[in-house]
């Protein structure tokens, strides 16, 4: 279902992937610095989640300014929270690369503003912890302030997220967290000798099983 989400004086293009049965939880998903919501990994994950009963809303927000991207993500969260069509108990924010930075930033800001439990967790696909070859400047400030569960799915050969550095940041985080390493994958999740579909199957299954664990924990 295609929708346009109001953002300031313009609109963000977005698409709902709707499960057959009514969903109580949803995932909001956005892309990295390049591309848009039709980036193949996002399309694949949205379809997978919807087919497993989780509503997925993916949106496009162009622009390389992280503050701007964060504001856009926040507008999408508000939109879904107030939606009459999909009354959700909670959402998980997810993004690829820069989109995951924006998601982390939104969660940090919203947790300081209101303490309702609408946001249940954060999913970071290829979190860009540092610029290539610039390991001294880590983009970890938002991660250290987040309290909700966090899932990282990163390639072990990601040139923007050195394995030991992410593990170091994770050890300092107060949030419950899990890292799933895609063996030999780069920042774009490409692995020599494996098809994109094969890699995406692994990623999608990981994301879904983590979601299920966290939604079940909620109900206990």
TrEMBL record:
InterPro entries: AB_hydrolase_fold, KANL3/Tex30_Abhydrolase, NSL3/Tex30. Residues 27-209 form the KANL3/Tex30 alpha/beta hydrolase-like domain. This is TEX30 protein. It comes from Chroicocephalus maculipennis (Brown-hooded gull).
């Amino acid at each position: 279902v295609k929708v346009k989400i109001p953002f300031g004086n313009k609109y963000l293009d977005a698409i709902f992937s709707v499960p057959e049965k009514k969903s109580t939880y949803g995932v909001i998903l956005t892309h990295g610095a390049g591309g848009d919501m039709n980036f193949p990994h996002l399309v694949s994950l949205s379809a997978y989640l919807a087919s497993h009963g989780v509503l997925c809303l993916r949106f496009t927000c162009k622009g390389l300014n992280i503050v701007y991207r964060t504001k856009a993500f926040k507008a999408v969260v508000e939109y879904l929270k107030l939606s009459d069509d999909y009354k959700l108990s909670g959402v998980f924010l997810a993004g690829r690369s820069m989109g995951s930075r924006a998601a982390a930033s939104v969660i940090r800001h919203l947790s300081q503003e209101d303490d309702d439990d609408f946001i249940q967790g954060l999913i970071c696909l290829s979190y860009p912890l540092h610029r290539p070859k610039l390991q001294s400047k880590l983009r970890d400030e938002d991660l250290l302030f987040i309290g909700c569960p966090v899932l990282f799915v990163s390639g072990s050969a990601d040139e923007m997220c050195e394995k030991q550095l992410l593990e170091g940041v994770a050890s300092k985080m107060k949030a419950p967290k899990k890292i799933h390493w895609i063996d030999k994958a780069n920042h774009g999740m490409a692995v020599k000798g494996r098809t994109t579909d094969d890699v995406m199957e692994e990623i999608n299954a990981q994301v879904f099983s983590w979601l299920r664990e966290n939604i079940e924990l909620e109900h206990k």
